[in-house]
Amino acid sequence: MLSLREEFLKIGFDLTDQQEEQFKTYFTMLVETNKVMNLTAITEWDDVVMQHFCDSALPCKSVKTLQKALESNDASHPVRLLDVGTGAGFPGIPLKILYPDVEMVLLDSLQKRVKFLNNVIDACHLEKISAVHARAEDGARDANLREGFDLVVSRAVADLPILAEWCLPFVKVGGSFTAYKSRNIEDEESRSIKAIKTLGGAKPFVDFVPLPDTEITRSFVTIRKTKPTPKAYPRKPGMAKKNPL
Q1: What's the whole-model pTM score?
Q2: Helices (H), the chain
Q3: pLDDT tens readout for residues 13-57
Q4: Which end of the chain has less neighbouring CB within 10 Å, N or C?
């Protein structure tokens, strides 16, 4: 059985007792709820620690844009972070446990998952975090959310041109969006250039980061927001997948 603290030390985090207990509570709730709701195919302790918890935290010490923003967070000007398509709470809840002062919103399109997330938030005594039930295309039309975040992250399974249309409208000018991707990203990256430019983003920067003691290498694609997203985007639900930019 893997030691949570030892695995997090390998990626640069020295967990407090409180953080360790929060991760254990989260694990228990994830596994128990998964018996009655499809949250994840990964349920064994070692696999959850590596492929969900550590994987969620992996870019925080290796992606400079993300690291700089998270570690410069202060109470008077808190960083606002949005996790789009959070599902069972990845990467948002692990990031919140690690960076408790960051203001966070978890966005998901399924109400029962949002209920689960709220239960985790309560059980782990997390503050300055909320779970919102909405599709990305609808959430980005909300004046309280559109271009309201310093950082947007997503581990959702979708091609980069689609993720860019879902996520960049939420990013403030000067902020950034980081997509968690698999190792092979070259084709997606080349197909995303037009979409990213249209949506107000700069040329993406890719960090390749290995997950310690595994054969897994992650690609983290970071896009800086340089100008406002045109009001026409995102398009109506389903359009980004049906006809990517």
Answers
A1: 0.96
A2: 4-10, 17-34, 45-48, 55-57, 64-71, 92-98, 111-123, 136-139, 160-167, 186-198, 239-242
A3: 999 999 999 999 999 999 999 999 999 999 999 999 999 999 999
A4: N
